[in-house]
Specification:
The chain is mainly β. It has one domain: monomeric porin ompg (Porin), CATH 2.40.160.40. It has one helix and 13 strands; from the N terminus they run αβββββββββββββ. The protein has a twelve-stranded antiparallel β-barrel. A hairpin with a 4-residue loop joins strand 11 and strand 12.
Length: 228
């Protein structure tokens, strides 16, 4: 396996841990949604790099605890064929303001690697604004900071953005983007399709901010389930 292919495989192995926050998300960027108190949501994410037969699997669960707060847990670092880097990631998201279509959200993810560790603890913090228009279009604009070994070997900061446009009751077109050249640095356009009252399927295509000539683009599928 050449060096370029190895680099992309390593990015695949950590992209879910770096980008898929343990809350409700657009694809990777946290969304403006907050679960109501006692509501529980589960999801399994699968990112696949077909030209290297490599993939990551990220199960997560989210619960609303009231006061515009939801908490979650990821199990990151499950990948093939690269070694497992199992990283439980507890998270919290708070919608501090929600009025007239405008929202302010603050969130934090704590990375706690337990298998094949390359660091002891990491953190991803963000703040973002959302605006929902009469057309039901919702824009997300925010900033993030990640400590060493979360998005890259050193501390990284940048912007996170998203857009969601419902087309009809089951179908929403969407895209999100993390700026920067690191393991979370992807533009992901795609769609969310409601399969019923409880299930939603997400389909996206992750396009790397760098390394496209080395194959840094992935197919992302997610299946979400509302438990109550």
């Amino acid at each position: 396996m050449n060096a370029c292919r190895t680099t992309v495989l390593l990015a695949v192995a950590v992209v879910s841990a770096a980008a898929a926050a343990g809350q409700q998300t657009i694809f990777n960027v946290p969304s403006g949604d907050i679960l109501d108190k006692a509501r529980v949501y589960g999801e399994i994410d699968f990112a696949y790099l077909w030209n290297a037969s490599a993939g990551t699997y990220t199960p997560r669960v989210v619960a609303g605890i009231g006061h515009q707060i939801e908490i979650g847990m990821n199990l990151n670092g499950i990948s093939t064929p690269t070694p497992l880097q199992t990283t439980p990631t507890p998270t919290i998201k708070w919608r501090a303001y929600n009025r007239n279509g405008l929202g302010l959200l603050l969130g934090d993810d704590l990375y706690l690697p337990v298998r094949n560790k390359t660091y002891e603890i990491g953190n991803y913090f963000y703040a973002e604004l959302t605006k929902t228009f009469r057309s039901r279009t919702r824009l997300t604009m925010g900033a993030y900071d990640s400590t060493s070994h979360v998005f890259a070997s050193s501390n990284r900061a940048g912007g996170q953005f998203g857009i969601e446009q419902p087309i009809n009751k089951p179908l929403t077109l969407a895209a999100d983007w993390f700026t920067g050249s690191h393991s979370a640095g992807y533009l992901t356009p795609g769609a969310a399709i409601k399969l019923g009252s409880k299930a939603t399927a997400f389909f996206g295509y992750e396009i790397g901010n760098s390394g496209l000539s080395r194959g840094n683009h992935l197919l992302l599928t997610e299946l979400g389930w509302n438990f109550n």
